[in-house]
């Protein structure tokens, strides 16, 4: 940083503030803790189809690791770019994991027919959407750090478009998830109450609740990012660290941490799937 220059007025400081090492350290430790616990749970209880989330958590943590570098060298464009891209793009993996989870959950209770779109097609459609918005955001994010104002402005517009598309896509997915749960509860009460006499750790509805909580966290974060980019460069949302932690980091942490006590592999297992195949609970009513 140029000596004596206020970070908020430093043209070389992309964040317009000096990141707090204390907040960075706490966040890094929490995210890594979740990632390591879920890695253990994945091997202990199964659910390797949640691997995308775990990988995303490690890359997300890596982004916070680079915030220490941004603190020490706030004018380094290279460190900022790496930090920014890891933090902004890693949540795409969290989103993809939730897409996969809905398909697994609907099959585990034998109610795929109540998902608006056929499950295999649903997962493919939303994964492709996630990949597409990832590429758009990556391209736009790379341009936003250009020293040329017009190039950076174009990058911001591209990045904003990617965020908006991601938000619309995930809103659609969230609506499909809620619709699925309401239809199962209304039209297939046998499936809805299947685990009512079991403990909370075996009740599929608890996992469905975790999925909904995760979706809410991601939606809050996505809404914040869209609002942040709508302010163009150096608006109050992007240049205030408390907003970043309160509206981006905390919602995302909630979205992934909910799966520590409610690890999907504990609820959806090969044994349960075999039992379901022998005694399916299905209802084709519409």
UniProtKB/TrEMBL annotation:
<dbReference type="GO" id="GO:0016020">
    <property type="term" value="C:membrane"/>
</dbReference>
<feature type="transmembrane region" description="Helical">
    <location>
        <begin position="203"/>
        <end position="223"/>
    </location>
</feature>
<feature type="transmembrane region" description="Helical">
    <location>
        <begin position="157"/>
        <end position="182"/>
    </location>
</feature>
<keyword id="KW-0812">Transmembrane</keyword>
<dbReference type="Pfam" id="PF04479">
    <property type="entry name" value="RTA1"/>
</dbReference>
<feature type="transmembrane region" description="Helical">
    <location>
        <begin position="122"/>
        <end position="145"/>
    </location>
</feature>
<protein>
    <recommendedName>
        <fullName>RTA1-like protein</fullName>
    </recommendedName>
</protein>
<keyword id="KW-0472">Membrane</keyword>
<feature type="transmembrane region" description="Helical">
    <location>
        <begin position="50"/>
        <end position="69"/>
    </location>
</feature>
<feature type="transmembrane region" description="Helical">
    <location>
        <begin position="243"/>
        <end position="262"/>
    </location>
</feature>
<feature type="transmembrane region" description="Helical">
    <location>
        <begin position="23"/>
        <end position="43"/>
    </location>
</feature>
<dbReference type="InterPro" id="IPR007568">
    <property type="entry name" value="RTA1"/>
</dbReference>
<keyword id="KW-1133">Transmembrane helix</keyword>
<feature type="transmembrane region" description="Helical">
    <location>
        <begin position="81"/>
        <end position="101"/>
    </location>
</feature>
């Amino acid at each position: 940083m140029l000596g004596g220059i206020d970070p908020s007025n430093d043209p070389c400081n992309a964040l317009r503030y000096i990141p707090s090492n204390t907040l960075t350290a706490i966040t890094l430790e929490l995210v890594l803790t979740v990632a390591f616990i879920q890695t253990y749970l994945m091997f202990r209880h199964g659910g390797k189809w949640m691997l995308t989330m775990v990988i995303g958590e490690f890359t997300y943590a890596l982004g916070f690791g680079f915030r220490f570098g941004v603190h020490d060298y706030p004018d380094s464009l290279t460190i900022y770019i790496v930090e920014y891209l890891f933090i902004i793009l890693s949540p795409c993996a969290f989103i993809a994991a939730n897409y996969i989870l809905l398909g697994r959950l609907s099959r585990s209770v034998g109610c795929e027919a109540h998902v608006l779109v056929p499950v295999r097609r649903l997962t493919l459609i939303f994964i492709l959407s996630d990949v597409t918005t990832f590429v758009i955001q990556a391209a736009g994010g790379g341009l936003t750090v250009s020293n040329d104002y017009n190039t950076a402005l174009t990058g911001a517009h591209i990045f904003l478009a990617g965020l908006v598309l991601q938000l619309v896509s995930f809103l659609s997915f969230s609506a499909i998830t809620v619709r699925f749960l309401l239809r199962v509860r209304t039209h297939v009460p046998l499936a809805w109450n299947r685990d009512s006499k079991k403990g909370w750790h075996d009740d599929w509805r608890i996992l469905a609740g975790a999925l909904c909580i995760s979706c809410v966290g991601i939606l809050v974060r996505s809404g914040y990012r869209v609002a942040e980019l709508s302010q163009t460069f150096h608006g109050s949302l992007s240049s205030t660290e408390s907003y970043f932690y309160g509206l981006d980091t905390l919602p995302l942490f909630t979205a992934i941490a909910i799966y520590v006590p409610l690890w999907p592999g504990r609820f959806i297992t090969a044994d349960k799937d075999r039992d379901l195949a022998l005694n399916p609970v299905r209802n084709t009513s519409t």
